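Weekly sync, protein design subgroup
Attendees: M.S., D.O., the rotation student, P.L. (late)

Item 1: inverse folding check
M.S. brought a backbone from last month's batch and wanted to see whether the design step gives back something sensible before we order anything. D.O. pointed out we never logged the input encoding, so this time it goes straight into the notes. Structure tokens as presented (261 positions):
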């Protein structure tokens, strides 16, 4: 079995294809669980609704750095209640820092990130981090919020696309990296290098659909079924069997997202 640990099936690009069709194609390649990730207030409501309505879906609530402006103490209180009530909400995020387009002031992003870290810690669910062009600042905030010697909630850098050197800093802190279709792109040498070196218990696979379709389907709308391409590529890079990557990534996802099963 495979688990797509980071999808946005609630987005129009996939809803318009018919959710049952998307689910059936995922099941046909062995995808057994799909975690829909919240990025703002609206999509977080949708992920929870989808999870309530369909067994295969799980949900997270979170504010992407581009929607950091929606963060407030009131929203965090509301989400805290929701997470405590609904066991299909398996994590907080995606949240973090993204300086790529610099649309949202850095201090606004940092404050929303800190609020969401506190939320995840207070309810004891894992944190899904989105980090782009902001690696050192992300780590600085995590270092401020976590004691790496103690037992922590799970933390994942989703769609990891930084250097191997930085990934090693994360792994040393018990932070997991997860891979998308980017690892299948011929020019993504850095990400492939990270995949080659990632310890077998420190990675997960995801699509981040509808974005980032793997090489074979590039230009198309990405979907959970294509997570098998990601697993296939990691197997090829690491020189081990596809079955073993499926087994390990699923085992890692189950351990990371304690509420999954
Ligand atoms: Ni995403």
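Designed sequence read out in the meeting:
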């Amino acid at each position: 079995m495979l688990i797509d640990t980071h999808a946005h099936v609630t987005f129009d690009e996939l809803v318009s294809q018919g959710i049952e069709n998307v689910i059936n194609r995922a099941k046909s390649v062995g995808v057994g669980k799909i975690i829909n990730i919240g990025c703002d207030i609206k999509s977080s409501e949708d992920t929870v609704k989808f999870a309530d309505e369909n067994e295969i879906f799980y949900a997270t609530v979170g504010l992407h750095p581009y929607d950091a402006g929606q963060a407030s103490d009131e929203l965090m209180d509301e989400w805290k209640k929701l997470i405590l009530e609904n066991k299909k909400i398996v994590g907080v995020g995606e949240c973090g820092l993204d300086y790529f387009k610099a649309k949202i002031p850095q201090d606004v992003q940092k404050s929303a990130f800190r609020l969401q870290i506190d939320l995840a810690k207070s309810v004891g669910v894992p944190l899904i981090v989105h980090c782009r062009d902001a690696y050192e600042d992300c780590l600085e905030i995590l270092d401020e919020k976590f004691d790496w010697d103690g037992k922590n909630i799970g933390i994942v850098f989703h769609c990891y696309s930084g250097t191997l050197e930085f990934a090693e800093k994360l792994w040393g802190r018990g932070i997991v990296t997860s891979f998308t279709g980017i690892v299948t792109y011929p020019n993504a040498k850095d990400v492939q290098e990270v995949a080659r070196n990632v310890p077998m218990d420190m990675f997960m696979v995801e699509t981040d659909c509808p974005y980032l379709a793997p090489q074979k389907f590039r230009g198309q709308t990405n979907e959970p079924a294509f997570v098998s391409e990601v697993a296939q590529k990691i197997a090829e890079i690491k020189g081990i069997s596809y079955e073993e990557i499926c087994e390990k990534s699923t085992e890692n996802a189950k351990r990371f997202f304690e509420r999954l099963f």
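Discussion: The chain has one domain: 2-260. Residues 6, 8, 37, 94, 208 surround nickel (II) ion (CB under 6 Å).
Action: P.L. to compare against the previous round before Friday.
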